[in-house]
Design a protein that fits this description.
Number of helices: 9
GO molecular function, one term: DNA-binding transcription factor activity
InterPro entries: Homeodomain-like_sf (IPR009057), HTH-type_TetR-like_transc_reg (IPR050109), HTH_TetR (IPR001647), Tet_transcr_reg_TetR-rel_C_sf (IPR036271), TetR_C (IPR011075)
Pfam families: TetR_C_11, TetR_N
Protein name: TetR/AcrR family transcriptional regulator
CATH topology of the largest domain: Tetracycline Repressor, domain 2
CATH class of the largest domain: Mainly Alpha
Distance between the termini: 67 Å
Structural class: mainly alpha
Strand content: under 5%
Keywords: DNA-binding, Transcription, Transcription regulation
Shape: elongated
Largest sheet: none
């Protein structure tokens, strides 16, 4: 039986290099947007050669997609506070922090614009960002149904849209700050709507 030798040197994807590249991608996206981002600029900002990028992702679009998806999905939460209100409030807090993140708040409009022009990016956003984030938040409503806090026939897909839609509309479309107590108001509104 032959033993495989552990790869060394260039064959190993070093986590610190991957982290530097990830940070560079997010910084470049926030600074120049999707259309003007280049592999050369990312490599320069990360302090690596372009080959380090291509060892991880075969194309610019796949690199951007992977980095944005990882950043976004990692910020979704599945709190289990014991109540719909507590779970929903924690979920909306995480959503708010995600879309108002100093870098991501500058990336999100470009992501939406790119998805409107590019069907592949739109599908990727739904499948790699929206899908996993919604799968995580779905548990909030499933538990509420199991606890009897909301009716068993609650449309969970629609329930997920309510709070997120309200916050997105205010912050991104209208460009109006949330203000003190805003997330509590949204949470209470959604709980009342679903409990009715």
């Amino acid at each position: 039986m032959t033993t495989r030798r552990t790869p060394t040197g260039a064959a190993v994807l070093q986590p610190e290099v991957t982290n530097a590249i990830t940070e560079a991608v997010l910084d470049e996206l926030a600074e120049v947007g999707f259309g003007r981002l280049s592999m050369e600029a990312v490599a320069k900002r990360a302090g690596v050669g372009k080959s380090a990028l291509y060892r991880r992702w075969p194309s610019k679009d796949e690199m951007i997609g992977a980095v944005v998806a990882e950043f976004s999905v990692a910020r979704a939460v599945d709190p289990d506070t014991g109540s719909l209100r507590g779970d929903l409030r924690a979920t909306l807090d995480a959503l708010y922090e995600w879309i108002t993140h100093p870098r991501f708040s500058r990336i999100l409009p470009g992501l939406i614009a790119e998805a409107s022009r590019n069907p592949e990016m739109a599908a990727f956003s739904r499948e790699a960002i929206g899908g996993p984030r919604r799968a995580i938040s779905r548990a909030v409503f499933t538990r509420a149904i199991e606890r009897g806090e909301i009716p068993a026939n609650t449309d969970v897909e629609l329930a997920q849209d309510i709070g997120a839609g309200i916050i997105y509309w205010r912050l991104i479309v209208r460009g109006v700050p949330a203000g003190e107590g805003y997330l509590d108001q949204v949470t209470d509104l959604v709980v009342r709507a679903l409990s009715a």
